[in-house]
Model the fold of this input.
Amino acid sequence: MAKRRELAITFDGSYDGFLCVVYAYYYDGIAPLCIQPEDEYQQTLAEEEFFIATDFAKAKKVLQAVREKVSPEAENLLYYTSLAEGNERFMDMFRYTRLGFRVGSEVDNHMQQDFVMGVHKRARYVGREAHLLSGFCRFAETKQGVFYCEITPMNDVLPILAEHFADRMMNQAWIVHDKKRHRAAVYDGNEYLIGDVPQEVRVEYSDDEEKVQGLWRAFFSAVTIKERVNKVLHRSNMPLHFRRNMVEFK
Done:
């Protein structure tokens, strides 16, 4: 086999894009020195950058290989890790995938490898944040009758939340807006789409919604026993970065 070319790999940052990087390693002879989204990469003189475009047919082929040769659990771990923050996540995912193709489902028993541990830790972090936000999201009725929710998550959990609410609010049009990344999931009652939105978005709430929010804040204040407030416990049960988008804390 010819020696693989060692290159700094950039791509569009998507999970499908990452799968195409794996495809390029096995079929095009490209060995990544690093793997980063194109908009995050800072080139050095010692590295030659190479952009890999997303090809859904190639991504599907690699995804099927991960399911069959490694495990469905590995696929889920890789997907959740792709939604995490941090520049090293994609190299950890790449090394995890290579090892998985060699040892199959046993890859998850190799926790002594930093990249295996890294994939598991990031996936757990993403999963935990998505789980908490699924309960902490606060939808408000707009004048157009669409229910709107703001989030500012640490990780890119919008795709997970969109799937969650499409299943549980299937008869109601809604929008989940990730204000940190300026992206939103929009559901029309049949299907949802995720796309970029302007940095400044003005939302007009219905008259009933304003009343309900006022009543909820009044109730929340009334049931609070100031002498028994435990701020340490509050922070444990309700992380501070979730509060900015919750009616109770506004």
Q: What stands out?
A: The two ends are 62 Å apart (CA to CA).
